[in-house]
């Protein structure tokens, strides 16, 4: 999974060309072996998928499995050890090496299709028993790969077929920690030089874009709330355009709300294994995504903060999202905190 904030620049081009450029940047980033090394070293990620594949192995002897976004081929090879046939889709330049990996490990079982998922063409009447994909990005949906997976599902998954993962949830929780203020206060004095004039810029920098970092579970101010829950067999791309959830946070006396932290959870049918990027679980390469507010909300003697969080597709960057928090604070002016996930 890649971060594109340093790879993209502002563009004023037609949206179809803009999307093509976004897609090319995305695919080029996944031709970088370093990204795949990071993902393969994520033991929780690998263990979740391996446990699911092992669980269903005895049911897959006659199955045809489609691996969407096969990358270096780990999931394709694991599936091919049990399945009759595997179709591996990989649109990046890595597809050439993917063929070598599968031919070395499971010769004759995996067919590599070097194409976008939307361009996949199977033989007439051929249907998939299983579609497997590791499509999740920061904050679950960043990179917007899921619609590509759904395009394969809608065209080729047979009735009663299996999606892995089968269910995904996006969760949020209130956060109190000192990270933001430490980053801003660094500029107060650097090597004895007063650089406090840069502090407003630092605040704007760290509070306009989400931060991807490991959060101490002790920093959570309250229980998590669900923002999105998807059944992968029925969710539609249109469901991802915009969704919202009520925000209701009780701030204990003397507390301070610095922002909102997000993570996701994925289930794999009845395999009995859950992949979670929660702060209370072992760390993954996804970490957590934190939205730090421009100004902390002081809890005073204890208050109930309400409002709404809205997540919607970015109107300029086709693989990004905009996230806003409409905060209603008792006795104070309402506030809107807006972020770009791009």
UniProtKB/TrEMBL annotation:
<dbReference type="GO" id="GO:0042054">
    <property type="term" value="F:histone methyltransferase activity"/>
</dbReference>
<dbReference type="Pfam" id="PF13649">
    <property type="entry name" value="Methyltransf_25"/>
</dbReference>
<protein>
    <submittedName>
        <fullName>PRMT6.1 protein</fullName>
    </submittedName>
</protein>
<dbReference type="GO" id="GO:0032259">
    <property type="term" value="P:methylation"/>
</dbReference>
<keyword id="KW-0489">Methyltransferase</keyword>
<keyword id="KW-0808">Transferase</keyword>
<dbReference type="InterPro" id="IPR041698">
    <property type="entry name" value="Methyltransf_25"/>
</dbReference>
<feature type="domain" description="Protein arginine N-methyltransferase">
    <location>
        <begin position="169"/>
        <end position="329"/>
    </location>
</feature>
<dbReference type="Pfam" id="PF22528">
    <property type="entry name" value="PRMT_C"/>
</dbReference>
<dbReference type="InterPro" id="IPR029063">
    <property type="entry name" value="SAM-dependent_MTases_sf"/>
</dbReference>
<dbReference type="InterPro" id="IPR025799">
    <property type="entry name" value="Arg_MeTrfase"/>
</dbReference>
<dbReference type="GO" id="GO:0016274">
    <property type="term" value="F:protein-arginine N-methyltransferase activity"/>
</dbReference>
<dbReference type="InterPro" id="IPR055135">
    <property type="entry name" value="PRMT_dom"/>
</dbReference>
<keyword id="KW-0949">S-adenosyl-L-methionine</keyword>
<feature type="domain" description="Methyltransferase">
    <location>
        <begin position="65"/>
        <end position="161"/>
    </location>
</feature>
């Amino acid at each position: 999974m890649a971060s594109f904030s340093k790879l993209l620049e502002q563009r004023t081009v037609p949206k179809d060309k803009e999307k093509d450029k976004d897609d090319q940047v995305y695919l080029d980033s996944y031709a970088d072996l370093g990204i795949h090394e990071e993902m393969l070293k994520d033991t929780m990620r690998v263990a979740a998928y391996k446990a699911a594949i092992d669980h269903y192995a005895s049911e897959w002897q006659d199955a045809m499995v489609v691996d969407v976004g096969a990358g270096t081929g780990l999931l394709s090879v694991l599936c091919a050890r049990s399945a009759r046939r595997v179709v591996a889709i990989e649109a990046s330049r890595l597809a050439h090496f993917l063929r070598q990996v599968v031919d070395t490990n499971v010769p004759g079982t995996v067919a590599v299709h070097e194409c976008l998922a939307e361009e996949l063409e199977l033989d007439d009447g051929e249907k998939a028993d299983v579609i497997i994909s590791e499509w999740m990005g920061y904050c679950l949906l960043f990179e917007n790969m899921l619609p590509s997976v759904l395009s394969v599902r809608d065209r080729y998954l047979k009735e009663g077929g299996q999606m892995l993962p089968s269910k995904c949830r996006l969760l949020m929780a209130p956060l109190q920690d000192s990270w933001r203020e430490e980053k801003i206060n660094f500029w107060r004095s650097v090597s004895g030089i007063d650089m406090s004039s840069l502090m407003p810029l630092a605040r704007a920098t760290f509070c306009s874009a989400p931060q991807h970092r490991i959060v101490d579970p002790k920093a959570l101010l309250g229980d998590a709330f669900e923002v999105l829950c998807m059944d992968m067999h029925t969710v539609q791309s249109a469901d991802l355009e915009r969704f919202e959830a009520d925000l209701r946070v009780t701030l204990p006396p003397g507390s301070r709300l610095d922002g909102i932290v997000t993570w996701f959870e994925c289930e794999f049918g009845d395999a009995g294994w859950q992949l979670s990027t929660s702060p209370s679980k072992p760390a993954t390469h996804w970490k957590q995504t934190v939205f730090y507010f421009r100004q902390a909300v002081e809890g005073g003697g204890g208050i109930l903060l309400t409002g709404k969080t809205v997540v919607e597709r970015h109107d300029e960057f086709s693989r990004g999202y905009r996230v806003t928090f409409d905060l209603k604070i008792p006795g104070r002016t309402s506030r809107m905190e807006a972020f770009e996930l791009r």
